[in-house]
Write a structure and sequence with these properties.
With 437 residues, the chain is an alpha+beta fold. 35% of the residues lie in helices and 17% in strands. It contains 14 helices and 14 strands. It has helices spanning 2-13, 34-45, 56-65, 71-94, 99-102, 116-124, 129-134, 141-154, 168-184, 246-259, 262-266, 346-354, 361-370, 409-416, and strands spanning 193-197, 202-207, 210-220, 229-238, 269-272, 278-279, 294-297, 308-311, 320-321, 335-337, 341-343, 374-387, 391-393, 399-401. The longest helix is centred in the first third of the chain and has 24 residues, at 71-94. The two termini are 45 Å apart. The model is unreliable at 8-26 and 426-432 (pLDDT under 50).
């Protein structure tokens, strides 16, 4: 249904031209019929069902002008309706808050602004305002499940806790923020992709026509949070080496090696000079600043990346990889890394990524056991979405709630609850602590 409506809008507007600025429509004020106004009012009234702030001021003014008959009042009513329709279009298509302000660690570009000119043309052709607006929302089963959960929880008595002791109000807050983050995501997500649900410590390998394959993961610690971004797995490296980033070298490794110079060799680190030559750790001055050497941990079972790395080029130096510290997967709280994502069953995930008869689980194990560092390109890159969602859908279709481990939700709620008719500020900037390659 949503696809049909959007196709209709595109046909009317010949969707080849760039979308005009949302707040400066070139078209004259649309003349709203009573039925169209009633439909607009209904969808605006239902905005909180999407987790959005209520449009109370605009609706109150529209109600006051509903029976106006003189031309001036009717024109004012149409202007208010136009502004309300445009604002709802923006909020449905891109979210009610700018993530740069509401959640600076969300580094995923917002969807495109709605093509207001095309929508107004569709209105003039008697398209339903509510249908046009709802077609802008995410058309994903998870979004629909979250919206149904919002309706169910909202109907509960105030203060009602769930089986885990989470109050009705706390669940509504997590649902509102999660619905908003879904609106920040691109529309038409690829069927074949990897979703990392950071607060749930879970990774989903999605394939068209199949249930997601779920993996437990370890994510960034609270003081080294994993950011939200999109990248692609282009290859898998078996028996990787590890070159730790400068911050880990400076704050963790150098102090340890200064206290115990034999630890570098014991932990499998090579020390490389500016020319790439290996220098014996015993002759290195670990107290020297600046430290002019590069540290590189040799491949092997004790390597910090384990026996496999999923190569994920991105500006944050974040990777998916194996780990020698498997005991952490038994813990409920798995916010333990420097920002990278450690996967519980990397061989099983690699088998799906390769998607080739020659790369079965047994073949991957044999290649790992051979010990050589080997980069294996994928026949087709796989998109990876690193997501911070404190409500999500489990394998049974039920909505489950996760702890807000990085305390990112409250700021989103504050921005969401600003008067929708007041333009929000924009901001940017983020410092990320990666784990190296």
């Amino acid at each position: 249904m949503r696809t049909t409506i959007l196709a209709f809008v595109c046909a009317l507007a010949a969707c080849t031209a760039p979308a005009p600025a949302l707040r400066a429509p070139a078209s004259p004020v649309h003349a709203w019929s009573p039925s169209a106004l009633a439909d607009l009012r209904a969808v605006a009234t239902a905005a909180p069902e999407e987790g959005l702030a209520a449009e109370t001021p605009a609706l109150t003014t529209l109600d006051a002008l509903a029976s106006a008959t003189d031309a001036r009042a009717a024109s004012e009513r149409d202007e208010i309706a136009d502004a309300l329709f445009a604002r709802l279009a923006e909020r449905f298509a891109q979210g009610g808050a700018d993530p740069a302000v509401a959640d600076p660690k969300w580094r995923i570009a917002r969807p495109d602004a709605p093509d207001l000119a095309a929508l107004r043309t569709a209105l003039s052709a008697n398209a339903s305002p509510s249908a046009l607006l709802r077609a802008l929302l995410p058309d994903e089963p998870e979004y629909d499940a979250l919206r149904r959960e919002m309706a169910r929880v909202t109907a509960e008595p105030a203060g009602t806790p769930d089986a885990n002791g989470l109050t009705r109000e706390a669940r509504i807050e997590r649902l509102r923020v999660t619905l908003e983050r879904w609106r920040w995501l691109p529309r038409n997500l690829p069927a074949r992709r990897v979703d990392v649900l950071v607060p749930r410590f879970e990774l989903l390998v999605r394939r068209e026509g199949a249930s997601p394959v779920r993996h437990a993961v370890i994510v960034g610690a609270r003081d080294m949070p994993t950011p939200s971004f999109i990248a692609e797995i282009s290859s898998v490296t078996l028996n990787p080496t590890w070159t730790p980033p400068s911050k880990i070298v400076r704050e963790e490794l150098l102090p340890r090696f200064r206290r115990d110079p034999s630890a570098a060799a014991r932990d499998g680190f090579d020390v490389l000079d500016a020319g790439g030559n290996v220098v014996p750790p015993a002759v290195v001055d670990w107290s020297a600043r600046p430290f002019t050497y590069t540290l590189r941990q040799r491949a092997g079972p004790a390597n910090a990346l384990g026996r496999m790395r999923f190569d994920l080029p991105n500006p944050f130096a974040i990777y998916l990889h194996d780990t020698p510290s498997r005991g952490v997967f038994a813990q409920a709280d798995r916010a333990r890394s420097h920002g990278c994502i450690r996967v519980a069953d990397p061989v099983g995930m690699a088998e799906i990524m390769f998607n080739a008869p020659s790369w079965t689980r047994d073949a991957i194990d044999l290649a790992i056991d051979a010990g050589a560092t080997q980069r294996v390109p994928l026949t087709a890159s796989v998109p990876v979405y690193i997501l911070y969602l404190t409500a999500s859908v489990d394998e049974t279709g039920a909505v489950v709630y996760a702890d807000d481990i990085y305390r990112r939700d409250a700021r989103v709620l504050r921005v969401l609850d600003v008067d929708p008719s007041v333009p929000h500020a924009t901001a940017s900037g983020l410092s990320i602590f990666g784990c190296g390659a």
